[in-house]
Design goal:
single chain; elongated; 4-stranded antiparallel beta sheet
């Protein structure tokens, strides 16, 4: 199956490689081959896969499952928290709380529609127009959401929605990150395992090892995927600018 790339970038990995050279004895003319193992930096491509429709559906399911899990544990959703404070004489009226819950759901649904359309290889004119329309809709709704959340920012950071959202972004990171060496014909999955849970185990192992390569990969991949998810970015130029800003400390 063809590998459809969302974005890719290059890094260098320090590896032990075998170097072989031949020495010739000047007196006897005899040649001897010497092989040494040395450390050197080898270029590696990090390639983020563009999610398929099936993967998008699996990611949405993971989000829903995590939301349900959090609610069962007693963690409030943003809408619940909003309503709680309005009911106890907080800064919002009950009607505002309902509007907030509706707005948050609309943003999530609109983002998913955008991502599904963006994953289509050959887009029709209607699909391209709808993508641009969705970008504007999401931007407008997010401005309204930010205005509503400003006063309660620290509380909203610990809601079920944020926990599920972080789980969703972790899913994308573990399932879409691939690496490819110079001699590799195809990219291979960076996080090993058949299932998401298996990949989480590998993720924690890599976290404990804390190699320089791992740190660079995770930092850039998570930044790119968050930018893609929240800002509807899809062009290499947009990601290049993001990486440039990140390396300059502006992100």
């Amino acid at each position: 199956m063809e590998f459809k790339e969302l974005y890719g970038f290059s890094l260098e990995e320090e590896k032990e490689v075998k170097k072989t050279h031949t020495r010739k004895n000047k007196k006897t003319g005899e040649e001897t081959t010497v092989t040494k193992t040395v450390k050197e930096k080898v270029p590696i491509q990090v390639r983020i896969k563009r999610p398929s429709r099936r993967q998008l559906e699996e990611a949405e399911l993971e989000y829903s499952v995590e939301m349900s899990r959090c609610v069962k544990k007693g963690i409030l959703t943003k809408a619940m928290l909003y309503k709680k404070y309005s009911d106890t004489g907080g800064v919002w009226a009950e009607e505002d709380a309902k509007d907030y819950g509706k707005l948050y759901k609309e943003i999530f649904d609109t983002q998913n529609e955008y991502i599904r359309l963006e994953s289509v290889s050959k887009k029709t004119k209607e699909q391209k127009d709808r993508i641009e329309e969705l970008k504007n809709i999401i931007a407008e709704k997010k401005r309204s959401l930010v205005d509503a959340e400003t006063a309660m920012h620290s509380l909203f950071d610990h809601t079920a929605d944020i926990t599920a959202q972080n789980r969703l972004l972790l899913w994308y990171t573990l399932m879409l990150t691939h690496i490819q060496g110079e001699k590799d014909e195809q990219p291979e999955e960076y996080f090993k395992g058949e299932t998401f849970e298996d990949k989480i185990d590998d993720y924690y192992l890599k976290e404990e090892e804390q190699s320089d390569l791992y740190g660079q990969i995770v930092q850039k991949v998570t930044t790119v995927l968050a930018f893609w998810f929240f800002n509807q970015a899809s062009e290499p130029e947009e990601f290049n600018k993001l990486i440039e800003d990140m390396e300059e400390g502006e992100v």
